[in-house]
Amino acid sequence: MAGFGQVGRSSAGTLSAMSFNPRGVRGASPGLPGEIDYRLARQAVISEFRRGRIAQHEVCDAHPELVRAARNVGEESTRTCPICEQANVVLVSYVFGPRMPAHGRCVTTKAELQRLARAGDELACYVVEVCPSCSWNHLARTFLVTPPVGRRRSAPSA
Ligand SMILES: [Zn+2]
Question: Quick check: pTM over 0.90?
Answer without folding.
Answer: no
